[in-house]
Structures are given as structure tokens and as C-alpha cells.
Amino acid sequence: MKIASPLESHILFTIGPVPISQPVVTTWGIMAVLTIGCWFLTRRLGLRPTRTQAALELVVDVTARQIRETMEAEPQPYLPLIGTLFIFLLVANWSSLLPGVEPPTAALETDAALALIVFGATLWFGVRALGARGYLRSFAQPSILLAPLNLVELFTRSFSLMVRLFGNVMSGVFMIGVVLSLAGLLVPIPLMALEMLTGAVQAYIFGALAMVFIGSAISETNPSPKAPNHEVSS
Amino acid sequence: MNWIHIVSILGAAFAIAIGAIAPALAQGKAVAAAMDAIARQPEAANTVSRTLFVGLAMIETMAIYCLVIALLLLFANPFA
């Protein structure tokens, strides 16, 4: 019996010289569904919220509260990034419930792109909060001896962010495939239920870790949140 | 099936088998400590469980690394 490798993705068609693989198509489909859905749901917002508007406001409020508690900062600049990451990952991880759809997060490239977004956002928010010099100085924070270690950690944690999401989602898909090829039709259903739980937890953890990374980048020079920006002015 | 294949399969199996032990023990300790903390201080349950989830994800990464190594050995072996 030959099992398809989970490390390479199935190529559907090519546009010119560019091969388009299955995760790309699924990602664009999810993006289209989310964009059109958000546009449709936020078309008429009122001061007296309808049921759907109340539900959406609940989602936004919960995300903002999580950001405020985790990062100890005003959530407004970070809410679009973190919220989009969380909702996209949740939909992407659960998209395997549709028959014939593989979650795009089970491909290494999608996770690499998402981790790269978090990496870039960490640098961007760090530089914006502390200034380029202040952010660079924050690498030598406890002592200059730890600067290489902090620099290495910046890359390794992005890498582990990528591998964690990939490993969790892909192992679920892989396991369901193996069980399906060994046993019958209805046997993998408990595994799929477990996979839904894993998908939700991984989406939350990706968002939470993005919050932690950005939060540590913007607050590395002021240890107490009560006294912000005292390092920037000096 | 030459000896590189055999060694790769054995290596993948041992990578998962040994690599699952330490994260399992570590996750058990982390969950036990979090249960203890919640039992002592139930009003801090939110903070404790959030930190627990992030910590568990960190620990789990070790096992996931082993899984990735095993899959590399099985499906993308550079020597086979």
C-alpha cells in the first residue's frame, strides 16, 4: 500500500509557468468566503444591533479583551491582524469537514507564510513602539551577552510557530487517511471530532502566540506597564 | 528494500517512540501544576488556563519536531 507523502502538495493546474496547487485554491476560496461574508454581514450596521450584528460584536469584543489581557496594551492596532489570523485559521482548520477539501494549513507553505506574517508584524510593531534604535537595544536587554541568544530566538520561535501548526493539522489529516485506508467508512468520525478540537485549539494558540510575541516586542524596555515610553524619550 | 530503507523506517519509529516520552511527562506535570493552582485559587482559572494552553503548545512542539523528522525520513529521505 502506498500512502501519499504529506510533505508535497497536489498540483491542480498551471497558469502559464506557475503551478497552482490544491492548498492555494482552498486558501483563495476561504479568503473569498470570509471577505464576501464579512462584507455581506457588515452592510447595514445600526446602533440597535440585529442578532447577527450582536454575534459579530461578541466575537470582536472577546478578541479585543484577550489582546488587552495578554499584551497589556490597547487592542486597537493589533485587533485586525490577530482577529484575521484567528478567524482564518479556524475556518481553514475546520474546512476539512467539507468532503473533498483538505485544510490548507496541512501544507507547510501556508504555515510558512502565516509565520512570516507574524515575524514581520513583530518587527513592525516593535520598531513602531520603540523606534529602530530602541528595538535593537531591546535585544541586549538583560545583558549584552544575551544578544545573540535573543537574535536566534527571534527566528527559532517563528520556525516553531510554523512547524507546530503544520505538524498538528497535518498529523490529523494523515491519521484520518491511514485509518480510512485500514478500516471502513464511519470509523474515522471520532478522529474527525478530535481533529475539530485540535483545529480550534491550534487556531487559538497561533493567535495567542502572535499576541505574546508582539507584546514582548513592544514592551521589552519598559518592564512595568504602568510606565510606558520612558525609554523612547531618553 | 536496501538497508537505508530499513534503517530509515526504524529511525522514524524510534524517533516517534522515544520523542513522545518526554513531552508526555512534561505535559502531565504542567497540567497537574495548573490543576493545583486552579484548586488553590479558582478565581485565577482564566489566567492559569490561558498560560497552560500556551505552555502546552510549547511542550507539544518537541513531539511535533519528532513527527516531522519521522515523516522526513519516511517520505523525503535525502539518502534513499
TrEMBL record, chain A:
CDD domains: ATP-synt_Fo_a_6. One of its GO terms (molecular function) is proton-transporting ATP synthase activity, rotational mechanism. Its main location: membrane. It comes from the Bacteria. It is a multi-pass membrane protein. Signal peptide: none annotated. One of its GO terms (cellular component) is proton-transporting ATP synthase complex. SUPFAM superfamilies: F1F0 ATP synthase subunit A. One of its GO terms (biological process) is proton motive force-driven plasma membrane ATP synthesis. Keywords: ATP synthesis, Cell membrane, CF(0), Hydrogen ion transport, Ion transport, Membrane, Transmembrane, Transmembrane helix, Transport. PANTHER family: ATP SYNTHASE SUBUNIT A, CHLOROPLASTIC. Belongs to the ATPase A chain family. Key component of the proton channel; it plays a direct role in the translocation of protons across the membrane. This is ATP synthase subunit a.
TrEMBL record, chain B:
GO terms for molecular function: hydrolase activity; lipid binding; proton-transporting ATP synthase activity, rotational mechanism. Residues 10-73 form the V-ATPase proteolipid subunit C-like domain. Keywords: ATP synthesis, Cell membrane, CF(0), Hydrogen ion transport, Hydrolase, Ion transport, Lipid-binding, Membrane, Transmembrane, Transmembrane helix, Transport. One of its GO terms (cellular component) is proton-transporting ATP synthase complex. It is a multi-pass membrane protein. Coiled coil: none annotated. The keyword Nucleotide-binding does not apply. The chain crosses the membrane at residues 52-76. SUPFAM superfamilies: F1F0 ATP synthase subunit C. It is found in: Cell membrane; Membrane. The record marks 60 as: Reversibly protonated during proton transport. The keyword Ion transport applies. Key component of the F(0) channel; it plays a direct role in translocation across the membrane. A homomeric c-ring of between 10-14 subunits forms the central stalk rotor element with the F(1) delta and epsilon subunits. Belongs to the ATPase C chain family. This is ATP synthase subunit c. It comes from Sphingobium cupriresistens LL01.
